[in-house]
């Protein structure tokens, strides 16, 4: 009788341990877990037109979920200097001051970019000297205004084509590739020394020639003595077309090997057809997000991840690619998606593995799959911590069994 009750108590204790470990600890979020994993931030793009939305603000201000903000539009040339010499800092100041009040880092975006230029920049017939001077004035004024509020600046944005050639723009057409070095030199001159200066681009993860051209660009700047601190990879992915974790790690590492920081600066994973996205596509999106986040964790010089808005309510994707969407971690009505939970549980596993010995756990594999539940399909992520718990519970049962047999003899 006593032996049976010991057996029951032990079983109950083991079950309780598993149940407790599955309960969502309220004291962690994406950013806090990223910090525990040794990274600098998990952040999001945001903009002033989202600020009046209290539910949005509640999530944005949660220091467990986010530790970094990027102004989605308000620091772009067309908005910040719409007329020659007429600087308009009101909206971007609001983003900066919000970041400051929430104690979030601010990644500033962006200085020299071919897009969202005001007509006076794109349509004037510049000489090399006048355009060089215009870039100098713009960068000097904008960086000086924000001073040390910016942890990092995307100094030059999207200068390359997918085939590795330089993109045609007013800057390239008048100055050639020299405009890139010039932008970095001006930025370095005026920015506080601790500000990180980035080259930022999209499809560096998927277009091999573009990736190689970006590597060559960084090397070329370095060989001229132009200091560049980081490469931002935008990571705008599509469900099911996200590169493998090995490929993403190799990409990040290739830039990191040049001696610069790297970051996912605009991560989102869009459904090709949001209306017809299947359960499988939802599961695939969760897996794609985990792959991207994991690649950053695996590369030491990857400082953090920024999602390009955290809710579908304000995602840029449907406006640019009609039919596409559902790209964010939260739904339009602020429900956390399976992708959110998958990333969170992966991070929990990662942090647990860091805190315990890797020897117990084995490799870093994380599996994501959809399982049936009474409340409908759920995305299940099996991570290292669960394998560790499983091992400990098994050891406890085996030890108890041995003890029982010895006592019955
Ligand atoms: O502010 C005007 C508004 O007054 C007007 O009524 C409305 C009508 O269309 O347009 C509003 O401006 C829009 C602006 O976003 C602010 O909402 C522009 O049309 C629209 O083109 C602009 O889109 C932005 C896009 O960059 C433009 O280049 C997206 O929000 C923004 O998410 C996107 O972000 C870029 C990154 O900066 C660089 N990497 C790619 C990424 C996605 O395209």
| Broad CATH class | Alpha Beta
Biggest beta sheet attributes: 8 strands, parallel, barrel
Structural class: alpha/beta
Which regions are unreliable across 5 or more consecutive residues at pLDDT < 50? Answer: 1-25, 373-379
Shape: globular
**Which small compounds were modeled alongside the protein?**
ligand G3I
Percent of residues in helical segments? 40-55%
Total number of beta strands: 11
How are the strands of the largest sheet arranged? Answer: 1-2-3-4-5-6-8-9
User: Architecture, according to CATH?
Assistant: Alpha-Beta Barrel
Q: With helices defined by DSSP (H or I, 4 residues minimum), what is the helix count?
A: 16
What is the beta-strand fraction? Answer: 15-25%
Distance between the termini: 16 Å
What is the radius of gyration computed over CA atoms, rounded to a whole number of angstroms? Answer: 24 Å
The named CATH superfamily: Glycosidases
Work out the count of structural domains. 1
Short description, anyone?
With 409 residues, the protein is an alpha/beta fold.
Structure explained in plain terms:
This protein is an alpha/beta fold. It has a single domain, classed as Alpha-Beta Barrel (TIM Barrel). Helix content is 47%, strand content 16%. The protein has helices at residues 2-22, 30-36, 54-60, 77-80, 90-102, 119-122, 128-146, 170-175, 178-190, 208-223, 245-256, 279-298, 317-320, 338-355, 358-361, 384-408; strands at 41-46, 68-71, 105-113, 152-157, 196-201, 230-233, 236-238, 261-270, 302-307, 367-371, 378-382. α7 (128-146) packs parallel to α9 (178-190), α12 runs parallel beside α14 and α14 (338-355) crosses α16. It starts with a helix and ends with a helix. The model is unreliable at 1-25 and 373-379 (pLDDT under 50). The structure holds ligand G3I. Its main location: secreted.
């Amino acid at each position: 009788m006593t032996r049976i009750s010991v057996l029951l108590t032990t079983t109950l204790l083991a079950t309780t341990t598993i149940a407790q470990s599955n309960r969502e600890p309220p004291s962690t979020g994406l950013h806090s877990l990223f910090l525990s994993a040794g990274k600098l931030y998990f952040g999001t793009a945001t903009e002033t037109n989202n600020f009046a939305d209290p539910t949005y603000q509640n999530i944005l201000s949660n220091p467990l979920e986010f530790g970094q903000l990027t102004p989605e539009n308000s620091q772009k040339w067309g908005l910040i200097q719409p007329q020659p010499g007429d600087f308009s800092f009101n909206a971007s100041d609001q983003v900066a001051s919000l970041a400051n009040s929430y104690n979030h880092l601010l990644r500033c975006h962006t200085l020299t970019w071919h897009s969202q230029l005001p007509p006076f920049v794109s349509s004037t017939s510049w000489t090399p000297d006048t355009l060089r001077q215009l870039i100098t004035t713009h960068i000097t004024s904008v960086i000086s205004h924000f001073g040390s509020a910016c942890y990092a600046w995307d100094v030059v944005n999207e200068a390359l084509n997918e085939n590795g050639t330089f993109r045609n723009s007013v800057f390239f057409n008048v100055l050639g590739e020299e405009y890139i070095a010039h932008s970095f030199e001006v930025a370095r001159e005026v920015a506080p020394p601790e500000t990180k200066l980035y080259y930022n681009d999209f499809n560096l993860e998927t277009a091999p020639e573009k990736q190689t051209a970006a590597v060559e660009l960084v090397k070329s700047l370095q060989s001229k003595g132009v200091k560049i601190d980081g490469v931002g990879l935008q990571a705008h992915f599509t469900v099911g077309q996200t590169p493998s974790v090995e490929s993403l790690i190799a990409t990040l590492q290739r830039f990191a090997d040049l001696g610069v920081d790297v970051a996912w600066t605009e991560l989102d994973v869009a459904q090709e057809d949001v209306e017809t996205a299947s359960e499988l596509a939802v599961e695939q999106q969760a897996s794609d997000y985990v792959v991207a986040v994991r690649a950053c964790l695996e590369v030491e010089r990857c400082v953090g991840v920024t999602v390009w808005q955290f809710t579908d309510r304000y995602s840029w994707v449907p406006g640019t690619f009609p039919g596409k969407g559902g790209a964010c971690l939260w739904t339009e009505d602020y429900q956390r998606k399976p992708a959110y939970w998958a990333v969170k549980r992966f991070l929990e596993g990662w942090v647990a593995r860091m805190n315990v010995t890797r020897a117990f756990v084995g490799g870093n594999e994380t599996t994501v799959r959809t399982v049936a539940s009474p409340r409908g399909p759920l995305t299940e992520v099996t991570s290292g911590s669960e394998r560790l718990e499983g091992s400990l519970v098994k050891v406890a049962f085996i030890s108890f069994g041995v003890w029982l047999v010895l006592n019955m003899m």
